[in-house]
Design goal:
The protein is of the alpha/beta class. It has one domain (about 1-275): Rossmann fold, CATH 3.40.50. Helices cover about 45% and strands about 15% of the residues. It is built from 8 helices and 7 strands; from the N terminus they run H-E-H-E-H-E-H-E-H-E-H-E-H-H-E. Strands 3-2-1-4-5-6-7 form a 7-stranded parallel β-sheet, sandwiched between helices. Strand 4, helix 5 (about 135-165) and strand 5 form a beta-alpha-beta unit. It binds NADP nicotinamide-adenine-dinucleotide phosphate (NAP). The site of NADP nicotinamide-adenine-dinucleotide phosphate has 31 residues, from helix 2 and strand 2. NADP nicotinamide-adenine-dinucleotide phosphate binds near residues 70 and 93.
Length: about 280
Amino acid sequence: MRLFKRIRQAARCALQGFRYGGCSTARISYPSYGEILTGKRILITGGSSGIGLAIAKKCVECGADVLITGRNKDKLDAAVNEIGKQHCFSLTWDISQTDLTDKKLDECESLLGGDITTLVNNAGVPPSRFWGDVDEEEWDKIYTINLKGLFFLTQALTGRWKKQMVSDEYRKVINISSQGGFVGATYPYRMVKWDIRGLTEGLGKALVKERIIVNGIAPGVVKTSMQEFSVRQGDNLYTHQNPMGRVILPGEIAELAVFLINDASNAIVGQTIVCDGGYTLK
Ligand SMILES: NC(=O)c1ccc[n+]([C@@H]2O[C@H](COP(=O)([O-])OP(=O)(O)OC[C@H]3O[C@@H](n4cnc5c(N)ncnc54)[C@H](OP(=O)(O)O)[C@@H]3O)[C@@H](O)[C@H]2O)c1
């Protein structure tokens, strides 16, 4: 039986290798940390799919209450059903509508039953145009969703935190940048990821004295709908786009997020941690 399984797996790999030019599987462990995030109330923008959804799941597994946002209510409802309604809440919120930020933050606090303790700035859309083809529409879309929303939400929430915080706790912001924020940029998506990395460093330094710790994560090619080819490949994780030769799974980014949210990482300030299978190595 085992031999049959192996032969079948090898045949599938060979077929996928033929189709996609290579084949990779992954050896990953997802440790159980117990309830290390109990008492945390975490707002994750764009938590209805991909990386945000994986972070939401892991945070709930670690004892947190989580609120996920996104534009599509059906996607949000499906995510909440998947994670469980007891510790996961959702709010339809287009992050680019910055005039709604304060009202939406009130709603978040009410749904979570208290102050937000952690913000994961994850919402984003992929590029659809590159250098010579970039037009103003693409520029405005990427800058408005991927950067303006993140900036003003972080500004509003950390402003609230300064008034709310009474104990010696730390509050945290995790910004999702990209491997693209570490290599030359010729189009808005990548330029914004550089900006996010710069903002992480700037706010890291500016806010740590207020007991607010800001860090970031720079994922490489992650198997989400943003990397459509990787979803098409199914369980074949091959990519030629990094030295490791495989895509990264959303759960691997979630592991890093839990570490950064947890007090174990409190001495890490203003850093953007790269998780890219070696793509950015010189
Ligand atoms: N996948 C990768 O290879 C990769 C690599 C590096 C960095 N990243 C970054 O990781 C983050 C998550 O991407 P992903 O790969 O997980 O993609 P994804 O599966 O498409 O998730 C994107 C999430 O953002 C939400 N969103 C998009 N526009 C929004 C808006 N205007 N307001 C509120 N929510 C919005 C989406 O929900 P709705 O569509 O319903 O709004 C969805 O929940 C992004 O910032 C992306 O740039 C991804």
